[in-house]
Design a protein that fits this description.
By secondary structure, the protein is mainly alpha-helical. The chain has four helices and four strands.
Length: 166
Amino acid sequence: MVVLTRPRDTADVVLTRPRDYEALARTVVPPITVKQVKDSIKLLESLSLIARDSRGFYKPTEKSVRTDDYVRHELIAQYQMKCLELAKTALLGNQEQPRDISTNIISVSEQGFKRVQKCLQKFRDEVRAVVRNDDQKADRVYQLDVQLFPNSKVFSQRKKHGVFST
């Protein structure tokens, strides 16, 4: 299992000439410092997520990085919180870059919830397949986060005073 401490680490080495840290820092959205670029490269190399090619360029060793399904670890939770912070920045920030942000609030039964979970797993698998089979040279990095979390407790079937009891 790979644990990244900062979500942007996966994005920090995409469009670089050997040791062109300043240019790389400017390509990350929002921009980061040269020190952050160097730290990220060091971390990614130590995790074997990037390696130098024959010309000295850093290249990803994988096209996508993910956690195992249902992994519950404090470091993963911290990483996911950082991803949510980046999502907030993207929502409030620069509108020039193409993006796709949506929100759905759903009411669903336990059986429906399980079906939604299966749909999300299938979707994640399909996205990974698209990325893995993309034969074009990557020219950008996107963060894809999918959250499905409760906004209520489970309602009982009987009503008390016109309100569902929990």
